[in-house]
What does this fold into?
Amino acid sequence: MLQSALMNVMVKAARRAGRSLKRDLGEIENLQVSLKGPANFVSLADKRAEEMLYEDLIKARPGYGFIGEEGGTREGADKTHTWIVDPLDGTTNFLHGIPQFAISIGLRREDTIIAGLIYNPANDELYIAERGKGAFLNDQRLRVAGRRRLDDCVVACGLPHIGRGDHDLSRREMTEIQNRVAGLRRFGAASLDMAFVAAGRLDGYWERNLQAWDMAAGAILIKEAGGVVSCVDGQSDPLKTGNLICGNEYIHAELVKILRPLGK
Ligand code: 2AM
Ligand code: CA
It folds into this structure.
């Protein structure tokens, strides 16, 4: 297991915010949500979780910057370190009582992610990674899957929903990949899809129009598990472009080969 002062801070923060999300999930399941309706309730749940994470992370590392999905960017005195946080990734799943959502915490130093954590409070799966120290699920060291042939692979994607993204492009991508793989999945929480790639459960995953906080922690998990993360062009940093392909080196290359020409 990975033990460091930094990771202890991250794990403690995630577990506290996770307890809050889990309590709120219970409310959703009972459908006893506020008069304003479940969507409003969920946005309260993630704001509350983000404030807890902000409090704990900034208390432990005063001066670090903080980028959160809910509260935007908060600058710190230390310009080299920034927390990149999604307090509730997989919001739509959460809203529907589907237990596939997570807290995602990345720590960036200069331009490099140096630590990452993804925590699903619904099933208590905790994924952590630190640069040069490996990636872990609970106590277990992670390694990406070793498959080399797409037709043996289970691959996940994201799908744009109403009013977002390029639906035609997404359908073309799905058609191409569907024809080539053993199984295509759509789970709906980007951070957990990346965690599943790191854990070798998924052989690959791609999605467009993501944000840095969806991917920061997942990117270091996959790299520390021996996998490859890039933008759809096969090279650029997905945290900068918002579109992502990941997998082991073979499956990543196969996905890039199929998907890159379609986006043009
Ligand atoms: P969210 O649940 O925190 O919004 C769904 O395909 C995945 O994409 C989720 O991880 C979702 O994160 C993420 N995502 C990022 N930006 C999105 C957007 N503009 N619309 C829908 N999902 C988005
Ligand atoms: Ca998200």
